[in-house]
């Protein structure tokens, strides 16, 4: 059974969803793929993991990096989960490109190349935005491409984290210079 509650952020209303395992969704109202993977049979009830997630959001929107992650229940394909795992390694205030993520996945799978577009599709279907920071993924040379919540929100989130004054994050296991 999934449970839902709402959170009023500085960028608009957010729907939170969770089950007994952890957070299953965090969506800005009216975003693309809103409530994707939300059970049609869910109950509006603020269980403890949802309260913990609201506390995480309070800290995050106060321009601080939360020092904890609420329990997550990540629902998706293996490829999506691999991409979302990499997203969780992007530090607060940093960005990474779709190409860098594709390079990491290719290397982990023993492939010569992985499609940046496939990575983009997985990033776009991330149901637990902010906590799994898909807003930190940018196009080549830092171009601000797609965000299910809207480019305006992506810009606001990156500004909130100070990402525009910080350099790109180059993961240790990346082949990108």
Automatic annotation (TrEMBL):
It comes from the Bacteria. It holds the Pfam family DNA_binding_1. One of its GO terms (biological process) is DNA alkylation repair. Involved in the cellular defense against the biological effects of O6-methylguanine (O6-MeG) and O4-methylthymine (O4-MeT) in DNA. Repairs the methylated nucleobase in DNA by stoichiometrically transferring the methyl group to a cysteine residue in the enzyme. This is a suicide reaction: the enzyme is irreversibly inactivated. Residues 3-72 form the Methylguanine DNA methyltransferase ribonuclease-like domain. This is Methylated-DNA--protein-cysteine methyltransferase. It is an enzyme of class 2 (transferase). Its main location: cytoplasm. It is found in: Cytoplasm. Belongs to the MGMT family. Keywords: Cytoplasm, DNA damage, DNA repair, Methyltransferase, Transferase. One of its GO terms (cellular component) is cytoplasm.
């Amino acid at each position: 059974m999934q449970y839902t509650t709402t959170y009023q952020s500085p960028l608009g209303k957010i729907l939170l969803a969770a089950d007994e395992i952890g957070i299953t969704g965090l969506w800005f109202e009216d975003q693309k793929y809103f409530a994707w993977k939300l059970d049609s049979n869910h109950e509006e009830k603020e269980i403890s993991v949802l309260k913990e997630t609201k506390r995480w959001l309070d800290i995050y929107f106060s321009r601080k990096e939360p020092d904890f992650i609420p329990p997550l229940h990540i629902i998706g394909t293996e490829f999506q989960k691999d991409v979302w795992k990499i997203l969780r390694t992007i530090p607060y205030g940093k960005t990474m490109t779709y190409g860098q993520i594709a390079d990491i996945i290719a290397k982990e799978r023993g492939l010569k190349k992985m499609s940046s577009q496939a990575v983009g599709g997985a990033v776009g279907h991330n149901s637990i935005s902010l906590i799994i920071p898909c807003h930190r993924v940018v196009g080549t040379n830092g171009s601000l491409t797609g965000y299910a919540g809207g480019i305006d929100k992506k810009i606001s989130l990156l500004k909130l984290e100070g990402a525009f004054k910080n350099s790109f994050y180059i993961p240790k296991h990346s082949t990108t210079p």
